[in-house]
Amino acid sequence: MAAYEALYRKWRPQSFDDIVAQPHITRTLKNQILREKTAHAYLFTGSRGTGKTTCARIFAKAVNCLNPKDGNPCLECEICRDADAGALTDLIEIDGASNNGVDEVRGLRDNAAFLPVRCRYKVYIIDEVHMMSAGAFNALLKMIEEPPAYVKFVFATTEIHKVPATILSRCQRFDFRRILPADIAGRIQYIASHEDFSVTDAAAHRIAVLSDGGMRDALSLLDQCAAVSNEIGTETVEEAVGVAGTESVFEVLRAVAEHDAAAALERIDLLYRQSKDMTRFADEISAQLRSLMLLKSAPDSASLLECMPDELETLRALAEKMTLSAVLEALAAVRACCDRMTRAGNRRMELEMTLIRLCSDLRSQQGDVSGLTERISALELRLENLRQNGVPVQQSSGQQRPARHSPPAQNLQVQGKTDTAQYTKVLDWQSVLEQFNAVNPSVSGLLQGSEAYVIEEKNVLLMIVRNRLFRELFSAQDAAALGRAAQQVLGKKYGIRYKCVESEEDKTLPADVLLARARAQGIEVNENGAK
User: Fold this and answer.
1) CA 10 from chain center: how many Å?
2) pLDDT tens digit string along 75-101?
3) Cβ–Cβ contacts within 10 Å for residue 432, how many?
């Protein structure tokens, strides 16, 4: 009984015409071969599974083929057959990860001095070339710059930034693109039509999205699904791969949009009992949040979304329930959760905490719109007073001064001169402000242009604020929220203190910032107050 051959090996392209979604490369190589103007060194770069090594092998066959056809190898002559069987001594494949030393390169250089045994060219294919050492690269330089006329090099790498510029300048570089889901799905259906299993269009699209632009990954997933069932649908894909499925993702997103933490936690519990991968599920959530982000930003460009037509309607319904700022906040939080899950002991707990925080934060944000309106009204009244040289202006009998959201925390202000030279400056202060902006954008706007210093022995974080209105609006509640944001970024809990340092050019900044942020929240603002 013959040994089973994996699909990605069985259906590996044998000619340039079989390579999917890289016409800009295959067309150039075919023309070079037809005109006999091939280079002595090539560098193929791109993400995994996009055809770099396969294209290198086809090129090696084509330049040595006895009967080439339009730049493609004929696949029938003895050279092509022996190359496919791995029995062609003039085609040398080297793994750059395990042959990355100077001694290996010296051996390659010595062997290159001998003429080809059977072929016109001796072709060296070095895969993962970025893994070679600096000494090995230096030993290669002279060889790839002026090799013998019968020697050609093809380098392949997924990390082009690790290849020295001296090597890049001596090669013709070809960048392999990620394969689009539609192209991968078409290839899957073609393979399925020649195998003993069938694949639905939805399942092919699901596999294509999960493969993230890599054909080899897609065929490996297809092979895995074919072992489960001969009739492959989306359920088969989810069962074989261990993903939760789009319905579970949409259920969690609906719970976030409706601030229903209980529903989100129940779905997580169900998936956990089904042994679903929490990290992969978080990735699926972030993928759909990306779709929501694109849908909110470009509602008429549905082609940007990687989803099935029936999923598009569900996404549109979700988009109606969430603002763009809420989607962006959720996407940032889930991506941060994915990063933490790679090193977390309990991945389920990380995801649960993120979802609970999102449900509560979205609720508090919408609930604080009225509070923000009150602050804007109070700010506009103060600005009017300041325009009249600090003389209070009486309000009309039909208006009442809005109540403050909470009393100002002026007891946190540091008086007198402060020598910041003896303190440690907070380099990640902007990241702290970004975290705080998600909780209180109005007060965060007043901190633009500020600096922060920490006094480690006292566990105090001192802000130098250049805004005269900050001390009027900064409350103890805001100080607590800012302390939590600082703890998330800096990893340590500090007491919050501030010192106001006013300047003439900053006097118009707070109003502009706050009014802009209010309008971004959908609050109408005019000269007489907020509506």
Assistant:
1) 32
2) 888 888 888 888 888 898 888 888 778
3) 23
pTM over 0.90: no
**Pair 393, 528: CB distance under 8 Å:** no
Q: Residue type for 13, please?
A: P
Among 206, 176, 239, smallest CA distance to 306 is for 206
> Which architecture characterizes domain 7-175 according to CATH?
3-Layer(aba) Sandwich (3.40)
Helices (H), 113-180: 134-145, 165-168
CA triple 433-457-496, angle to 5 deg:
30
Architecture of domain 404-530: 2-Layer Sandwich (3.30)
Fold classified for 181-241: Helicase, Ruva Protein; domain 3 (1.10.8)
Let me know if 65 is exposed, middle or buried by CB neighbors in 10 A (0-12, 13-18, 19+): buried
What is the tens place of the pLDDT at every residue in 109-138?
888 888 888 888 999 998 888 888 888 888
The CA-atom distances, in angstroms, between 259 and each of 139, 251, 330, 361, 528 are 62, 12, 12, 9, 34
Check the CA dihedral 97-103-106-108 and report its sign. negative
Residue 361: both structure tokens together = 């934060």
Q: Which residues contact 394 (CB under 8 A, 6 or more apart)?
A: none
Question: How many Å apart are CA 38 and CA 59, to the nearest integer?
Answer: 10
Runs of H (alpha helix) within 274-368? 278-297, 309-321, 324-341, 347-367
Residue of 53, 74, 62 lying closest to 30 (CA atoms): 62
Distance in angstroms (rounded) separating the CA atoms of residues 48 and 166: 24
Q: Which residues of 112-148 are buried (b: 16+ CB within 10 A; e: fewer)?
A: beeebeebebbbbbbbbbbbbeeebbebbeebbeebe
Handedness of CA 21, 23, 25, 26 (dihedral sign): positive
Residue 267: enclosing H or E segment and its boundaries? helix 261-273
The SS3 assignment for 70 reads coil
Where is 225: in which H helix or E strand?
helix 215-226
Contact indicator for 468, 500 with CB cutoff of 8 Å: yes
Q: Which CATH number fits domain 253-276+289-367: 3.40.50.2000, 3.30.300.30, 1.20.272.10, 3.40.50.620?
A: 1.20.272.10
